[in-house]
Amino acid sequence: MNPTFHPVPRISTAPSGKISHPSPAPPWTLPPTAESSPAPAREVECFSCRKSTSVPATAVSARCGHCSAYIKLDDVILHSRTHRTKVQTCGSVTVQANADLKGLNIECRDLVLYGRASGDFLCRGVCKIKTDQHISGSICARRMVVEKKTTVLVTGTIRVENIWIQGSLEGTLTADETVTIHRHAKFLGDITARRLIIEEGGTHQGAFTRLT
Question: Looking at residue 56, what is its pLDDT?
Answer without folding.
Answer: 81
